[in-house]
TrEMBL record:
<protein>
    <recommendedName>
        <fullName>adenylate kinase</fullName>
        <ecNumber>2.7.4.3</ecNumber>
    </recommendedName>
</protein>
<dbReference type="InterPro" id="IPR006259">
    <property type="entry name" value="Adenyl_kin_sub"/>
</dbReference>
<keyword id="KW-0808">Transferase</keyword>
<keyword id="KW-0547">Nucleotide-binding</keyword>
<dbReference type="Pfam" id="PF00406">
    <property type="entry name" value="ADK"/>
</dbReference>
<dbReference type="InterPro" id="IPR000850">
    <property type="entry name" value="Adenylat/UMP-CMP_kin"/>
</dbReference>
<comment type="similarity">
    <text>Belongs to the adenylate kinase family.</text>
</comment>
<dbReference type="InterPro" id="IPR007862">
    <property type="entry name" value="Adenylate_kinase_lid-dom"/>
</dbReference>
<dbReference type="InterPro" id="IPR033690">
    <property type="entry name" value="Adenylat_kinase_CS"/>
</dbReference>
<comment type="subunit">
    <text>Monomer.</text>
</comment>
<dbReference type="Pfam" id="PF05191">
    <property type="entry name" value="ADK_lid"/>
</dbReference>
<dbReference type="GO" id="GO:0004017">
    <property type="term" value="F:AMP kinase activity"/>
</dbReference>
<feature type="domain" description="Adenylate kinase active site lid">
    <location>
        <begin position="157"/>
        <end position="192"/>
    </location>
</feature>
<keyword id="KW-0418">Kinase</keyword>
<comment type="function">
    <text>Catalyzes the reversible transfer of the terminal phosphate group between ATP and AMP. Plays an important role in cellular energy homeostasis and in adenine nucleotide metabolism.</text>
</comment>
<dbReference type="GO" id="GO:0005524">
    <property type="term" value="F:ATP binding"/>
</dbReference>
<dbReference type="InterPro" id="IPR027417">
    <property type="entry name" value="P-loop_NTPase"/>
</dbReference>
Amino acid sequence: MASSVALEDVQSADIMTELLRRMKCSSKPDKRLILVGPPGSGKGTQSPIIKDEYCLCHLATGDMLRAAVAAKTPLGIKAKEAMDKAKLVSDDLVVGIIDEAMKKPTCQKGFILDGFPRTVVQAEKLDEMLQKQGTKINKVLNFAIDDAILEERITGRWIHPSSGRTYHTKFAPPKVLGVDDVTGEPLIQRKDDTAEVLKSRLEAFHRQTEPVIDYYAKKGVVAQLQAERPPKEVTAEVQKVLSS
């Protein structure tokens, strides 16, 4: 457990900031959102902006599983057993962990789900669980983008390992090809950022996750975003969708 801090030890400015944040959040409508899109479509750029604007919690299933395992919650213990046997964690377990996470105060106004559901079965289980709570998914933001654009975006990424500075051969090239601007050290490409890895990840996305978009489209909650646009334009598009 995190150690509790006595209120008198907290800076007044911090208390005021938190009070103002809570007042701002209290007037926001509840939102339960799913972000869907292939790797490199910009979900990671937009989700913190949406989270802050609408006072939502960000539920990334991979992080939540790791946290549940570390905290040794009953579900975390079950998940660890599956992982230790190199088995996939069952859909019911993942939905249970989402159910647990949603009870936290930070999720009071709703949540953003990222990386789940990946299959129609998972979407059905998620909907069943939400139905029991008397809620449902409000919007599914589909970061639609052409595979060819993704390949250009992802395979052009280069990183300076020790600082984490990122470059892109087309959009943000270093001054000297293959070399960090600041230190002059060589840049590397992450093993996930190659055309071969992207190809297999895209195949999995089209095969497993596109049916999820169809599933929610039938419920009338899918919003198509033009994810090939610059980030600021996508942000404006998201805000328009979520304010309607």
